[in-house]
Amino acid sequence: MAADLLDTLVRANLAAAAAILMVLLLRRPVRRMFDARAAYALWLTVPLAMAASLSPRPEAVAMLEPLTLTADAVAKAAPLPPVPGLIGSVLVAAWLGGALFAGGMLVRRQARFMAALGRLTPVGGGVLRAENPAVGPAVIGALRPWIVTPADFETRFNADERALILSHEAVHLARGDGLANALAAAAQCVCWFNPLVHLAARRLRIDQELACDAAVLARHPQQRRRYAGALLKAQLDAPMLPVGCHWPASGDHPLKERIAMLKTPLPAPSRRIAGLAAAVLASLTAAGAAWAIQPSPAPARVTAAPVWISRPDGANIASVYPAAAAAQKLTGKVLMACHVEGDGRLSGCKVLRETPIEAGFGEAVLKVAHRFQMAATDRDGQPTAGTDVRIPIRFVVPE
Known about the structure:
The chain is an alpha/beta fold. Helix content is 51%, strand content 14%.
């Protein structure tokens, strides 16, 4: 279990790292060539690549019936070493502790932001008014998000600026940006050890705000100056908001970059559509590459039942049984992949998975692989020569 979990984490993080590096390289050129909305769409690459890296890839390989190989009496080894597989368990415990700590920090930051809002008063239209003038505008929540405006919203902003701000927050709601940020926060907890994931979460929020700005300007192309003024007035210090969308200029949302984008002419609709199409194509291409290079797990069902002419006997197994495992009466499981030659013998064998890890069972099964030989046809009458097979093997010491 620990080995499988570590394997999943490694594969998902490798795929995420490659996708993040690709997005970091493309986001600015895509923004210049198309617009900020296309650059924001590029971030779909990361979850798609992670999901694809964990999706099984079908392969024409037969999973044979599980075999149990029992060793003859083996000598006890002394002194006993630590239980094999302990390293994997320690790594899983360290990962889980880090994930819980990271999650606790994000929950604490969310609570600080909510506390800073003070009492919230509904003002209609899905908008809440905060008691604190120093916090907001913002969207809070993920599944049922709300727009929150500061206490002095009516006095600090004129009517046009208020309309532009509410339009900006409405874009966040329509696109589900609160949920996107919640998923990014969850990824930071699960992948707390991966610095690229934390960098991606920050850059995602920058592109998210720029994409919202572009959407607002597309609806109000004559309001650039007023919108810039609203941005300047809205920059107030406030705690970080992990689950939601916030306006502060410090940290995640550089004000200079947002103001500079307001000076950029909006692209034609056809160019904007081309940019979104290019972003989707890049995401699908990266996901396809992640799926193609990931290792193929064994099929879940038994697909062949060979007739064994010969197999390793108890003495053979005793000669290769890891001494430390034998001393502890430790059983092992190995998944071995081989090619069946014309005479039924196995060749090109390799270990796909072994449990416990670092116990030596994988190396042991390879030492006796040459002793396996199957009949020309299996019990279903299907030929076995020239096929690729996977053999689940269980090592057992006698009681």
